Amino acid sequence: MFDGTLPILKDDDPEFVHANAAFIALANPPSRRVLELLAVAPRDLRDFNAHIGIPNDSMRTILKELQLVGFVKVQGGRWELGGPALGRIKDWLALLG
Q: Residue 43: helix, strand or coil by DSSP?
């Protein structure tokens, strides 16, 4: 349960910047859908297009942004969940109880 104690973060603290970037990425519905799909199985670009229906260039941009923030990684052309952003979100949710 949240006890009212928060770590002190400054806007020049990399952890603060990365945590905020993760929440900004989650605000984008197509980004959330990508994460939902990856929670089921790793996928390639064609798989996303079949489920989300946006142009390849836009899909690549979303994937690169999620990779930069730390939600996904790519191996051999297949995208999968992985990186520190999931942990940051879980840690924040744990504060709420």
A: strand
